[in-house]
Amino acid sequence: MPGAIGRLSPLRDPRAPFGTSCASNLRNHHQTHHPHEAYLTPLTRSFPDGLTEKGYAFYGSFVRAGKVKNSRIRDFVGGLSEIGVKRESEVAALALEQTFGKATSWEELTVADGFLAENANEGNIFMEARDGEIDRILVKTKEGFTITLIGTNLVEAGVYLPRIYHSLLRRLENKEIPEGIESVEVEVEGLAEEFAIAASPLRLKLRLPNLSNVSPYELALVVEKALDRVLAKKTNLHLVP
Q1: Residues paired with 115 in a beta bridge
Q2: Using the 8-state DSSP alphabet, how is residue 203 labeled?
Q3: Could you report the per-residue pLDDT of 89-145, keeping only the tens digit for each?
Q4: Domain locations in the chain?
Q5: How far apart are CA 172 and CA 166, in angstroms?
Q6: What's the confidence (pLDDT) of residue 121?
Q7: Sign of the CA dihedral 105, 106, 112, 113?
Q8: Separation between Cα atoms, residue 143 and residue 18, nearest integer Å
Q9: How far apart are CA 96 and CA 174, in angstroms?
Q10: Which of 4 and 197 is assigned the larger pLDDT?
């Protein structure tokens, strides 16, 4: 389980150029290495209360990009007419930002002594590079624990991390994890052993399947089963460095 934080890059930075193999933010990094990713066409949904929203079908969930209430200008949010086709990774970034918050520029990164500082913006998404290790996607939740995805696949992060987060919040609220949570590490199609170290708070490591091997409508269940499986392995042994 990672301790010290490596070099951090934000999820997206408007000043960073596209098309460079050393892109300084996670979105551009992903798009550089996935030039043929899918494009998603926006959908419009209307509700009886007068709400109209526009967004994207994204692996069994709906990621809202804008809304308008009763077509009144003063209630307008998001510019529905301007919401168009987006790359899959852009929608994944939206899903992450709507769950955890934004870190759009270097000025928003607050790092001290190799760790995320206590006064860092709550709920940010970063790309973490650590010497001699595979890069990671790192989220600091507003509740204070971290969720880390091994690798830099932004789409996997957008699909899995919000589901993991919401499941953990429910379990915390239901007192299923009395120790609290320090960190969660996620590996897609990995071979590493899963564990739950009751170091008070808890440290978790879980494996999840490749998105291509799961029906989008079974993803929530897959996450629930993975967390059930890992929490059932809970041990009081401390992790040996």
Answers
A1: 112
A2: E
A3: 999 999 998 898 875 444 444 443 333 333 344 447 888 888 888 899 999 888 989
A4: 7-32+99-231, 42-84
A5: 10
A6: 42
A7: positive
A8: 33
A9: 24
A10: 197
Residue 195 predicted with pLDDT over 70: yes
> Is residue 110 within 8 Å of residue 122, measured between CB atoms?
no
**Amino acid in position 222:** V
Question: How many residues does the structure list for the chain?
Answer: 241
For the sheet with 51-58, list strands across it. Answer: 43-46, 51-58, 61-69
* DSSP string computed for 23-46: -SSHHHHHHHH-TT--EE--EEEE
Q: Determine the longest span between alpha carbons in the chain, in angstroms.
A: 59
Beta strands in the chain (DSSP E): 7-10, 39-40, 43-46, 51-58, 61-69, 86-87, 111-112, 115-116, 124-129, 136-140, 146-150, 181-188, 195-198, 202-208
The pTM of the full predicted model, rounded to 2 decimals, is 0.84
Using the Cα atoms of residue 169, residue 174, residue 176 and residue 182 in order, give the sign of their dihedral.
Answer: positive
d(Cα 125, Cα 104) in Å, to the nearest integer? 9
Token representation of residue 240 = 């040996």
Residue of higher predicted confidence among 76 and 155:
155
Residue 227, SS3? helix
Dihedral sign from CA coordinates of 53, 57, 58, 59: positive
Amino acid identity at 190: G
Tokens of 29: 């990094």
Q: Which amino acid is at 188?
A: V
Say if CB 167 and CB 66 are below 8 A apart: no
Buried b (16+ CB within 10 A) or exposed e, 14-33: eebeeeeeebebbbbbbbee
Position with higher pLDDT, 59 vs 21: 59
